[in-house]
Amino acid sequence: MTTAETCYVESKHGMGTFLRVMSFAKEGTYSFTPIWDIFGNVEYLCSRFSSDSQLSLINRMAGKKSVHVDRNLVKILRAAQRISAFTDGIFDITAGAVTGLWHRESGKIRIPAETEQINARSLVNYQWLDVSDSEVFLQKANMKLDLGGIAKEFALHAAAAKAEETGMGAAIIDAGGDICTVGAKPNNRAWRIGIQHPRREKSLLASVVLQNWDTVETSGDYKRYIKDGDKVYSHIFSEEVNDEGGKLISASLIYKRRDDLLPINGTALIAGGLAKAKSFLKMLPRVEAILVTDAMQVFMTEGLRGYVHILPYQARHQTFIINRRAC
To answer: Tens of pLDDT along 31-50?
Structure first.
């Protein structure tokens, strides 16, 4: 689709979400094929829903033998191991035995028994994953990898790098609300990106001016879930948090990307709760964040002061600044 402003847009569905690329090239249309190829390749490698994926093969061979894998899968797994280690297992890429328990069978929602959950949790330990330069091995039978919290981010960063390498020019790559900008905006103003409201569908909580950053990643308990009557089971399994912290329902990370993925992600921040999220951010001075609690309190790091606009609603949000030196 082409607009009068010479904005070329293509959209697809992939990696379990909506994908969109917008290019503001000045001359002619830019081929988005290299971008789509990256998303397709990562999905092929990492999908736990496809029996043909390399991840599914690793899971089937758990406790039996190692599996030869693509070098990109090695990169993803090593990045995931770094996050698992940094968060001391709050984010654990071997959680597939647990996350796979909740699903639909013949149109009906299957809720696992407590004994099933306990048995599955006994198989979750990122330290039981061995990754070499070309082979991957899960040490115990019935262990399962789940890369849902990192594969999309890897693909998004790789797609942005490809766009820069091939001279795409000014562009936005959107993977289900996780966004990378490429190049300078045509009017030389900073990109402005919206943050999804976690409790108002199709509404924004805030907008962020990317004056010093080029990447926004948002995780939320509302993105993927199973509803059974009045009960909602999120794809993010949160720890119990004390009253001094708070339960997080949304976490956005704003930063300037580098070659390696961050040692943290929004899923880990939500799972750990507000207090732990603050402690993680204290160790990551180049990463800014917007955190939302279940009480609709909005916390943002001090580096975002002046660059974030919290949109007003009838139910006014309380906004707090995270002072990392005081965390």
So the answer is: 899 999 999 999 999 998 89
Mean pLDDT for the stretch of residues 176-180: 93
- Distance between terminal CA atoms of the chain? 48
The answer, yes or no, to whether residue 29 has pLDDT greater than 60, is no
Work out whether the CA dihedral 196, 200, 206, 207 comes out positive or negative: positive
Question: What backbone torsions phi and psi does residue 80 show, to the nearest 5 degrees?
Answer: -65, -35
**β-bridge partners, 258:** none
Q: What's the mean pLDDT in 174-199?
A: 91
CA pair distance 327, 245, nearest whole angstrom: 12
Q: What is the Cα–Cα distance from 128 to 121, expressed in whole angstroms?
A: 13
Looking at the chain, the number of H-run helices and the number of E-run strands are 8, 19
192-241 pLDDT per residue, tens: 999 999 888 888 999 999 989 999 999 988 755 444 455 544 444 544 55
Tokens describing residue 303: 């580096």
Amino acid at 278: K
Kind of pairing, strands 171-175 and 103-105? unpaired
Comparing C-alpha atoms, which of 181, 189, 141, 139 is closest to residue 161?
Answer: 181
**Residue for token pair 């009068």:** 4
The second-level CATH assignment, the architecture, of 190-326 is Roll (3.10)
pTM for this entry: 0.88
CATH topology of domain 49-138: T-fold (1.10.3980)
Instruction: Tell me how far apart the alpha carbons of residues 238 and 267 are, in angstroms, rounded to a whole number.
Output: 9
**Domain coordinates in residue numbering, the chain:** 49-138, 190-326
